[in-house]
Write a structure and sequence with these properties.
- This protein is of the alpha+beta class and 200 residues long.
- Helices cover 30% and strands 36% of the residues.
- It is built from 4 helices and 8 strands; from the N terminus they run αββαββββββαα.
- It has helices spanning 3-24, 64-72, 168-171, 174-199; strands spanning 32-34, 52-60, 86-89, 101-108, 111-123, 127-136, 139-153, 156-166.
- Strands 1-2-8-7-6-5-4-3 form an 8-stranded antiparallel β-sheet.
- Helix 1 packs parallel to helix 4 (174-199) and helix 2 (64-72) crosses helix 4.
- The longest helix is centred in the last third of the chain and has 26 residues, at 174-199.
- The radius of gyration is 16 Å and the shape is globular.
- It starts with a helix and ends with a helix.
């Protein structure tokens, strides 16, 4: 079977995953999608050559310290993100830092995606950039590069996130893969907003 036929069979899994993420997220708060800009963390950003990319922002009415702790305490993601089944640090505990690695899983129909992420850049309270593959039975993203930035603004904290995907399967249908990526990021921001504002 060619990779194109495999991609045609497995891309609906990515779309279904995105729909499940979006459906499981609380509806509070609106995120604003836009064309990815030149946002970076210590000079590094998402994959400029990737065909699949999505960026979005949200304002969270909570202290920066609360938002940052929720987002970077990856071992506790399952406590506030229903789509994250498991999450574990692969390096010594303590604050997330450049070089930290973590494994997390999220469901997709007929499979579970196993994602191993490595922090490439981090500036405490300001930004974090990680990347890594996502692999499930019949579904693979060769590399996802994910950037988060945090900025104090009137009304709380503006959280900006953008991500790129590369890989033959997802690149077989760029619009569908981009829609799947976007739905997942929008859901993540809504979950983060809900959890942070509940703790503020």
């Amino acid at each position: 079977m060619s990779w194109k036929s495999t991609a045609a069979r497995t891309l609906p899994l990515a779309l279904a995953l995105a729909a499940a993420l979006a459906a499981g997220a609380p509806g509070a708060g609106a995120a604003t999608a836009h064309t990815p800009a030149t946002t970076t963390c210590r000079g590094d950003g998402v994959d400029a050559s990737a065909r699949i990319r999505y960026a979005t922002d949200i304002v969270i009415d909570a202290p920066l310290s609360t938002v940052w702790k929720l987002q970077t305490d990856v071992a506790h993601w399952p406590s506030w993100q229903p789509p994250v089944l498991t999450a574990e640090r692969l390096d010594p505990r303590g604050p997330l830092r450049k070089g930290s690695a973590f494994r997390w899983t999220t469901p997709a129909p007929a499979t579970t995606l196993d994602i191993v992420s490595t922090v490439r850049q981090l500036r405490p309270g300001r930004c974090v950039l990680w990347d890594g593959p996502a692999v499930g039975e019949g579904l693979r993203i060769d590399n996802g590069v994910h950037l988060w930035t945090f900025e104090k603004v009137r009304g709380g904290v503006r959280v900006h996130t953008e991500e790129t995907w590369t890989g033959a399967q997802v690149e077989a249908d760029v619009p569908a893969a981009t829609a799947a990526l976007g739905a997942g990021l929008e859901a993540w921001l809504r979950d983060l907003k809900s959890a942070a504002e509940a703790r503020a």
